[in-house]
Amino acid sequence: MTLIAQITDLHLRPRGLACYRVSDTNMFAERAIRSLQAFNPKPDALVVTGDLTDRSDPREYAVGRELLSRLDMPVFVVPGNHDNSDDMRRALPEFPGMSESRSGKIYYAADVGSVQVIALDTFLPNSPCGEVGREQLTWLDGKLRENTKPTLIALHHPPALSGITHMDNMGLLDADALAEIVAPCDHVERFLCGHLHRPIIANFAGKIMTLAPSTGHQVVLDLTENGPALFNFEPAAYFVHFHSERTGVVSHMAYVESYPGPYNFFADEGVVWPGDEC
Q: What number is the average pLDDT over the span 147-151?
């Protein structure tokens, strides 16, 4: 059994500052880390699918490094459009993949238990859109050919459209090229994405794409044409991707906060209800 946890879109700020003036993303991220620490059984690794920071500020990376270093597991981070690949590499040199320099992009692969995790960098300078780029695509093609373990591909920008217009307008520009590479690969079992601040599941190139909600604020679910860009404080959550030989990859959403319960389904055992006497 292998467990891969996924959090995304932390949008960390310098200590004492809120995101968009009202979202205390540092507090929300702190709660998410505590939830991950308490998760049983302990995940084998954590994947952070982008927007670790809100403005790629060194102070924000410092907050992220301190929070993520509390976890007793490997932590794989990829940049989002609010990050910057070069800034992330300088700020987090001890994290996997950061020491490898390939045209500014941060991408790497790692075996975690029974699965392969592939991290891709979709950061595109001066744009909210994402791009994998020819160099990463060529590397990905080779990596998928040489390692046929069940594979999870982590990237910030989702390659499939969501129907939320203002977010789809800043999507992955070379999704079609990515599809050509992964479509023939039966061992690619999941795309792990962020960016949209909502739990979304879609098909891409015959694979399952799981898009995790933010640990902080969420994008309003508005599927009307050209709906406005708004956010709210629906419950924060993260994904836990479970793999075994028997099940393949199964993705579960876990809420950050605690709620009433757990309660026993058989709490009324022994009570005889009307009509049960027979």
A: 97
- Computed from CA positions of residues 126, 85, 162, 256, in that sequence, does the dihedral angle turn out positive or negative? negative
Question: Strand pairing of 188-193 and 218-219?
Answer: unpaired
CA distance 157 to 192: 9
- Average the pLDDT over 48-59 and give the result: 98
34: which 2 tokens? 């505590």
Per-residue pLDDT of 251-278, as tens digits, reads 999 999 999 999 887 766 666 666 665 5
Domains and CATH numbers, the chain: 2-255 (3.60.21.10)
Q: Is 227 helix (H, G, I), strand (E, B) or coil?
A: coil
Which ranges of 151-226 would DSSP assign to H, the alpha helix? Answer: 165-168, 175-182
Would you say 187 and 150 are in contact if contact means Cβ atoms under 8 Å apart? Answer: yes
Task: Count helices and strands (H / E) in the chain.
Answer: 6, 13
Closest CA to 163 of 114, 124, 219, 83: 219
What stretches of the chain show up as alpha helix (H) in DSSP?
25-38, 58-68, 85-91, 134-146, 165-168, 175-182
Query: Measured between alpha carbons, how far is 195 from 170 in angstroms, rounded to an integer?
Result: 9
pLDDT digits (tens, 9 = 90+) for 9-52: 999 999 999 999 999 999 999 999 999 999 999 999 999 999 99
- Please tell me what DSSP assigns to residue 38: H
As a whole number, mean pLDDT of residues 160-182 equals 98
